[in-house]
Amino acid sequence: MKTAFRAGASALAIALAAGAAFAQELQIENESWWQEAGARFDGVTLRGVTESTPPSNFISDVLAPKFEELTGIRVDVETTSWDQMYDKAIKDMEAGTGIYDMIYIEQDIVYAYLARDFLVNISQALEENPDLKAAGYAEENFTTFADNFRGEDGDLYGIPMEAFIKIYLYRTDLFGDEEIRAAFQEQTGRELEPAKTHEEYAEIAQFFTSWFQDKGEDVWGSTAQAHTGHPASWYEFFESVAPTFGVYNWGIDPDNNYAASVENGGTMNSDEAKEAMTWWLSMRDIAPPESVQSTWTEVATTFAAGRAAQGLVYGENAAWIATDDTKSRVVGNVGVALPPLAEGVMEAAESGEGYIGYYDGGAFGLPVTSKNQDASLLFLQFMALPEVQEEWAIAAPRITLDSTYDSPKVAELNEELGGYYDMLRDQGYLFKGAPAYPFHAQLREATAPIFYQILTGDLGVDEGLDQMAATAEQELSDLGYRQ
Amino acid sequence: MQSNRLGWILLAPSLLILFLFGVVPFLYVAWLSFHQWNPFAANPDIIYNGAENFRRLVFDAAFLASLGVTIAFVFFAVVSELILGYVLAQAFMKDFPGKAIFRTIHTLPLIMAPIIVGSIWKLMTTPSIGIIPNLLDTWFGLDLNIGQSAAAAFAVTVIMDVWHWTPLVTLTLIAALVSLPPDPFEQAQIDGANKRQIFWHITLPMIAPAVVATVFIRLMDALRTVDEVLMLTGGGPGSATRYLGVHIFKEVFPRTNYGYGSAISVIVLYLTIVACWLLYVSMLAPRNQK
User: Fold this and answer.
1) Does some domain include residue A441?
2) A113 lies in which domain range?
3) Cβ <8 Å between B40 and A441
4) ipTM of the complex
5) For residues B75 and A362, what is the distance between their CA atoms, to the nearest angstrom?
6) Closest CA of chain B from A139, distance in Å
7) Fewer CB under 10 Å: which end of chain A, C or N?
8) Residues 6+ apart with CB under 8 A from A7
């Protein structure tokens, strides 16, 4: 008992010490301004709720204590699961209880929150309260990802705190192995390089699965985020795979009465969507067996465990997979590339008509129901100061300010990540977040049961996608968006 | 008169809490069930729609499928727990080496939160990585994949529930068995009754109230199972383990279909009451009439 207690206390002490060490490294400019600004909120405690992710943990462990040290304003950030976070935030704002002063807004939910007028217009609030405006904070410093959190008026309704793209991750040690390269060339007649097309990707995946199967090793040719009962699989298909086949916005045309079926002008059950689904399922079938139970987290751990040669992985996991040898077996052996694409998709993305994958991230928003809005505005600006960004980017691979790319530590990490940050900066514009739908979760949940049946094989690809398109249109009619 | 008033005063806090946290939410859910309300619809207002939600339920294939798998789940889980719980209770009535340790270990699952139970079983059953698929493959050449096989996922959820809740049944039945008077059993043995006859004609009738109470508790719990299953399978593969609790959760929380979700909740409450009443009538009412 005593030993367990000591171990627990030691772990807690190490965690606190790590947070404190980061906090000490943060040098905030104009400290006296923050002290003065905070003085008027003596005794105030801000409460936030967010998903438990590395970027959010940095807020609760490092930024919140530092902010309290400067201003005297206590900040309690509750980090919890994705489902719980939404449950708590939505209930609080819906009921108007005002428990939370800050809430995490994932890019795909912001449109629903804006439609319900849940959020404070931060640009306007700072303009109307110049005494609360911190000198180091500037909206124009944000990367273009911040545009996802702007309303129709162009104002900002959330302070971006994480941003990443879903990338094609591959094992450089396997792709560079001479024996493997020779065998691959002999079998396919071409060099083993990261795939640019779906055919190439499938060829590489099949090659690696067979190669390691023959050797009796547990390595497969691809990952697959293909859980048969969790929305992670739905997202992988509609936000990461379907766009690479030219199916955008989940196959729904918002400019055409939210049509989903081909019959009405949508693309959810188009030939391209069916081809995408067939291809993805074929990759799932040669992925590690746990793929049918994998969400985004398990895909990352599968890759980090060295069980896959390549795969689509959320960028928020790239840093620890590539650098943390306490959690990853593939440290130093990770390369990044753009996802494989069908013909014409890159051209469409470059012209702004399409996109090649998912640009995800989140912001901290200020609920209109908050009882401490002014104090919250201070903390939200604190999160966006240039001087806190470098350490934050090291602790979690996220960049929300343009200036962060140039900092020395980030440049160093970029090398270890195989150029991930370069890709985020230079080619991030080719990726796109979720479409601006206010019915995000509603549509997903209405169609997900059919989607899962396609994954289990209870429904064929053609029949399943046809049913999904019809169900999507019915749901949108029921919700009043489709006339 | 004075003691009566004092009694009500002492009861008042409990009654108030029960009213605020039990009756009021129920009335709110019942009221919502007659309305259409999705805060993320084009019209987010609460709109009265009469019995439309209940009419829709009757033709809702997803709800009916969920009801079907839930009934199967409840049947297999509760019956298994009852049989296993009785066997274990009888075993614990006797002395054997290590009994105290075994009884403690056997009771441990009871103190675990359902979400933890779901996490543990997820770790143990993850295809190709979990210990159970590994052992089944090594020993019997069986491929257990709860992400792909509906039957396997269903069976694992039942086994998980049995693992979690059998100790409750065991403890309840031990309490019932301990309280039985020895005379009828001695008399039956003198009269030459065998073990089966003693069980059917003496033990079972005498512990019937405890059995019914235990079945009531387990039936109500199993009908509203959410956390464990959501963590283990998410309701999948497909809709194979989308039990009513999970179905309601997905309707109400992610889909924010508050009106329709409330209607399902009311119906499930009604079905639970009916099931318990039928059980009571079939098992205890004839006995009481005698």
Assistant:
1) no
2) 28-164+360-430
3) yes
4) 0.89
5) 44
6) 29
7) N
8) none
DSSP output for A65-92:
HHHHHHH--EEEEEEE-HHHHHHHHHHH
DSSP labels for A86-128? HHHHHHHHHHT----SEEEEETTTHHHHHHTT-B--HHHHHHH
Query: Alpha-carbon torsion B103, B107, B108, B109, what sign?
Result: positive
Nearest to A135 by CA among A33, A67, A63, A232: A33
Mark whether A40 and A94 lie in a shared domain: yes
Of residues A227, A289, A438, nearest to B234 (C-beta): A227
Q: Are residues A34 and A94 in the same domain?
A: yes
Chain B interface, Cβ < 8 Å to A: 38-44, 62, 122, 126-129, 145-148, 150, 233-242, 250-251, 253-257
Which of A290, A446, A453 lies at the smallest CB-CB distance from B255? Answer: A446
Asked if residue A386 lies in contact with residue A410, where contact means CB atoms within 8 angstroms, the answer is: no
Note the pLDDT tens digit of each residue in A167-222. 999 999 999 999 999 999 999 999 999 999 999 999 999 999 999 999 999 999 99
Contacts of B156 in chain A (CB under 8 A): none
Give pLDDT tens digits for A324-337.
Answer: 899 999 999 999 99
Residues of A with CB under 8 A from a CB of B: 83, 86-87, 90, 94, 112, 115-116, 218, 227-231, 288-293, 438-439, 441-442, 444-446, 449, 452-453, 455-456, 458, 478-481
User: pLDDT value at position A8?
Assistant: 41
B61: nearest CA partner in chain A? A449
- Distance separating alpha carbons of residues A394 and A105, to the nearest angstrom: 22
Q: Are residues A309 and A343 in the same domain?
A: yes
B240 contacts on A by Cβ (under 8 Å)? 456
Q: What CA–CA distance (Å, rounded) separates B237 from B65?
A: 14
Are residues A284 and A291 in contact, defined by beta-carbon separation less than 8 angstroms? yes
Alpha-carbon gap, residue A443 to A465, rounded angstroms = 14
Query: How far is residue A382's CA from residue A136's CA, in Å, rounded to a whole number?
Result: 9
- B148 vs A456, A479, A480: nearest CB: A456
Contacts of B256 in chain A (CB under 8 A): 90, 441-442
My answer on whether A248 and A345 are in the same domain is yes
Judged by CB atoms closer than 8 Å, whether chains meet at B40 and A116 is answered as yes
Which one of A385, A403, A430 terminates a domain?
A430
What is the CATH number for A36?
A: 3.40.190.10
Q: What are the angstrom distances between the C-alpha of A66 and each of A27, A58, A363, A383?
A: 10, 11, 19, 11
Contact B110, B218 (CB under 8 A): no
A196, A168, A184: which is closest to A418 by C-alpha? A168
Give Cα A397 distance to the centre of its chain: 11
Cis omega before residue B167 (within 30°)? no
Least Cα distance to A441 among A91, A116, A111 occurs for A111
- Is A99:A92 a contact under the CB 8 Å cutoff? yes
Residue B255 has pLDDT above 60, yes or no: yes
Inter-CA distances, A435 with A76, A187, A253, A449, A479, Å: 32, 41, 10, 21, 17
Q: Spell out the domains of chain B, with CATH numbers in brackets.
A: 60-289 (1.10.3720.10)
